[in-house]
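Sat 14:20. Reprocessing the chain from the morning session after the first attempt stalled halfway. Input below, unchanged.
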Amino acid sequence: MSDSKNSKQGANASKKKAAPTQVKTTKPELNVAQAKKGEVKKVDAKKKAASNPLDGLLWLVSLVLIAAAIGGNYYYTQYLMVDESSFARLGRVALVIVVILAGLGVTLFTTKGKRLLAFGRDSYTELRKVVWPTRNEAMQTTVIVFIAVCVVSLFLYLCDLVFLQIVRVITL
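Finished this time. Tokens:
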């Protein structure tokens, strides 16, 4: 009986040992396959970002808006303006600013614009993590910098006077 129990335990042990090795071999294969799929997705995303035809159209619209604002303002002031009141000038300047801002706003919908917005959000998040100095610390630091600038400027002034006297002695 002990032989049959040992043989059964040995068979069970070999099955138990075999099962984990199969799992170990399949998991890395799945991870490699998943990693390859992830890499393919990243590459595809980069290709899509670089080859997006809508980006080119958005850049073109943006450039046309900005050029129209600048060119229209120049043309109006050079050739059409006879007498402009301050209210009309304010309206013209406001229109130029709005059109330029619209042109710049269109660029935010491009791939680079979206990356710029993401960078801005990340920067704001990091800025909120900064531990700002207290008013007292800021005042003390300002005073120290002011005194250091005064001392260095006095030293440079004295060096200038000394070198001026040396040059006078040599040239005379």
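DSSP finds five helices and no strands in the chain.
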